[in-house]
Every structure is written in structure tokens, then in C-alpha cells.
Design goal:
Helix content is 35%, strand content 26%. The protein contains four helices and seven strands. β4 and β5 (76-82) form a beta hairpin. The longest helix is centred in the last third of the chain and has 29 residues, at 156-184.
């Protein structure tokens, strides 16, 4: 009987510990977390927005190269953004619009040193990909498509070949007509 109560208490403790971060997050309310919190100019950061009612959102900041698209479920949206390489050192506001609501946070940009690269991948975050396919063209047919055949017309070799074939056809029809006339007599 003692081992059953010990098992139940351990299970209850494990469930409570698992829910504690969610409860702390709910107590905090809504917000945007940027990882790393102090990135150098030109680097890639991971974004997490908590307290969103939708499954998609857009993060906007003057520190970013472009608006970042976020996605997720359960009120937590994640995504990536690249900090402008020309962003000056300082704190920038990050605002996420999602499901008719908005949550805010901040990012502190630090000057970039010469040993840092402009593109740093954030571990555990999948790089952004297009939401719709890009119309890329015809691959190997691109050189053929660059010349409009309707406006170019035939070149000299093609014109001579066409005239020779037409002359041959006229001669062949004339000979066949003459032969038929001789055979009909």
C-alpha cells in the first residue's frame, strides 16, 4: 500500500513540475522572446511569440531586414528574422501581430566584430521557406525563349532551303501533270 501512494505522489509531483513553466508563462502574460537577446548586426535570430490567438503571425521591427512570418499552435508562434547588417547598436522594439492581437518584445543589437559572420544559424530553428512556390521559368529553354521567333523571321539558309523545296514541288507537279496528259491520249 505504501508503494502505491509513493507512486501517486511521484506522478503528481512530475505533472506539477511539467505544468510549472506553462503556469509561469501564463502568469507573465504575453510577449516576444528573441534568441539571442543581444545579437550582432547581420545575424539571424529566433523569435517566439507567446499569447497569440492565431496560428500565424508577423513580426515587425526596424532592426530586421524584412518582416518575419511566424507559425505555430497553442498560442506559441516561432520563426526567424535577420538583423540588418546596418543596424546600429541599441534596443529595438519587436511587435508581433497575430490573430487580431499584438504582442511586443525587444531586441538589443550589439556591434559586430570582425570575427563574426553575417549569417549565424540559430540551433533548433528551421530556416524560413517560401509559403508559395516561386515561378522560376523553363530551365534549359530560357535561351530559346529569349528570342521571339515570330519577330525574327527566317535566316538566309532557311529562306534558300524553302525556295528550293517549293521549286522542286512545282517541277514535280508539272512533270506528273504532263505524264497524265500523255497517258490519257
Amino acid at each position: 500500500m505504501g508503494s502505491i501512494s509513493l507512486t501517486l505522489c511521484t506522478g503528481l509531483l512530475a505533472c506539477t513540475a511539467g505544468l510549472a513553466p506553462a503556469a509561469a508563462l501564463a502568469a507573465d502574460g504575453q510577449g516576444v522572446t528573441v534568441t539571442p537577446a543581444s545579437p550582432p548586426a547581420g545575424s539571424v535570430v529566433a523569435l517566439r511569440a507567446s499569447g497569440c490567438s492565431g496560428t500565424t503571425g508577423t513580426a515587425v521591427s526596424t532592426a530586421f531586414v524584412a518582416d518575419a512570418r511566424l507559425g505555430g499552435t497553442g498560442g506559441d508562434l516561432t520563426g526567424q528574422a535577420q538583423v540588418r547588417s546596418t543596424a546600429g547598436a541599441g534596443t529595438y522594439t519587436v511587435q508581433v501581430s497575430c490573430g487580431g492581437s499584438a504582442v511586443t518584445g525587444s531586441v538589443t543589437v550589439v556591434p559586430q566584430t570582425s570575427s563574426q559572420s553575417f549569417r549565424q544559424d540559430v540551433p533548433g530553428v528551421v530556416p524560413a521557406s517560401p509559403f508559395a512556390p516561386v515561378h522560376a521559368g523553363g530551365g534549359g529553354t530560357a535561351p530559346l525563349a529569349s528570342v521571339d521567333a515570330r519577330s525574327a523571321g527566317p535566316d538566309t539558309a532557311q529562306a534558300v532551303t524553302g525556295l528550293l523545296l517549293a521549286a522542286f514541288a512545282v517541277v514535280a507537279v508539272g512533270l506528273l501533270s504532263a505524264r497524265r496528259r500523255q497517258g490519257a491520249r
